[in-house]
Amino acid sequence: MATDSHHTPAEARARPLTKADPIGWAKANLFNGWFNSILTVAILLLLLWMVPPLLDWAVFNAVWGVATPEDCRAATGACWAVITEKYRLILFGRYPYEQQWRPLLGTIALIAMALISCDRRSWGSQLILVWVLGLGSFFILMGGGWFGLSTVRTSLWGGLPLTLMLAFIGIAAAFPIAILLALGRRSKLPIISNICVVYIELIRGVPLITLLFMASFMLPLFMPTGVNIESIVRAQVAIIMFAAAYLAEVIRGGLQALPKGQYEAADALGLGYWQTQRLIILPQALKIAIPPIVNTFIGLFKDTSLVAIVGLTDLLLATRQALGDPEWRQFFIEAYLFIMVIFWVFCFFMSKYSQALERRLATDRRS
């Protein structure tokens, strides 16, 4: 049978678009329907209308570096010179000017301690040593009285170091308390369960500012004569109590998400209550609750600004004090944007770290 030795090759076709391609991603996410297409075009037009003037104000027409208030008032853009002029007061509050290298080193010690704590290789008994060294260095540098450092009263502590101290110690101290409260609320012993329920519901039923007022103004009335607790300590205790109650409910949600078979398997292995919780239940419950736990941490970090109401000079109040200068007061937007960026950096890091940790610990979804 004769066959045709000539054949016409098929025309080459373009590779089909996938979601990995920019065009394919745009079609799948931005233009996958008439409503989304109109919404995408409207947002792009809005950005084209808003972004150029914003860049002109914030970058191109802005005053940078060292400048006078008159230079800023003559300009048509932002006055970032207010940051150059007032950054020490914003970051360190009323801490003695010539000693401000100490809160700077103390802040570095706290941040280094937090970064080391985020490394899973440091999780263990050595992490306790890291926190002892980190907090010890911070308090020695801030308070003085050791190694020839002059003593600085806690009433002069302020700015970013105070905010980080309240947040980090609040998180570290509230977390184990919250675990005990969550376990206690699920306890079969009525006395323990009722005590935990009353504590959690009482604390969660009042705003943080109420606890701060109680700790700052009411608690000293019940103290014995001659006994005085520093205002920073009282505010720190109030923050710990508040965070522990909210974290307890988050952790309880993780505990309730576990199937009953996990407890039955632990009983079959002959494990005791605390062995079951430490080795089987809590690791799984905490892994499930990572997103709401970190969300509570972020909320606590931002809520530290409320201590300004009871007279502590946190980062927000330090910025207000810096703007007390009449010459620079009108440039408050730039100052508040500066501390907004500081808060955003820390909150964004916690958010991204929690996502990475959740992916790393998601062993039940690995193929």
Structure overview:
This protein is mainly alpha-helical and 367 residues long. It has a domain at 152-313: MetI-like fold, CATH 1.10.3720. 68% of the residues lie in helices and 1% in strands. The protein has 15 helices and one strand, in the order αααααααααααααβαα. It has helices at residues 22-29, 34-60, 69-74, 81-92, 101-118, 125-143, 159-185, 190-204, 208-222, 231-256, 260-268, 273-288, 290-303, 315-322, 332-360; one strand at 313-314.
List keywords for this structure.
mainly alpha; MetI-like fold; 367 residues; 15 helices
Tell me the layout of helices and strands.
Layout (H helix, E strand, L loop, with lengths): L21 H8 L4 H27 L8 H6 L6 H12 L8 H18 L6 H19 L15 H27 L4 H15 L3 H15 L8 H26 L3 H9 L4 H16 L1 H14 L9 E2 H8 L9 H29 L7
Helix pairs in contact: 4-7, 4-14, 5-6, 5-7, 7-8, 7-10, 7-13, 7-14, 8-10, 9-10, 10-12, 10-13, 13-15
| String of helices and strands | HHHHHHHHHHHHHEHH
Q: What value does the Rg take, in angstroms?
A: 28 Å
What's the CATH H-level superfamily name of the domain at 152-313? Answer: MetI-like
Instruction: Please identify the structural class as seen in this structure.
Output: mainly alpha
* Percent range of helical residues: 55-70%
The best one-word shape is: flat
**What number is the mean pLDDT?**
87
The second-level CATH architecture of the domain at 152-313 is Orthogonal Bundle
Tell me the major beta sheet: none
> What are the segments in which pLDDT stays under 50 over at least 5 consecutive residues?
none
Number of strands: 1
Continuous helix count: 15
* Fraction of residues in β-strands: under 5%
**What is the first-to-last residue Cα distance?**
53 Å
Q: Regarding CATH, which class of the domain at 152-313?
A: Mainly Alpha
Oligomer designation: single chain
The CATH topology of the domain at 152-313, please? Answer: MetI-like fold
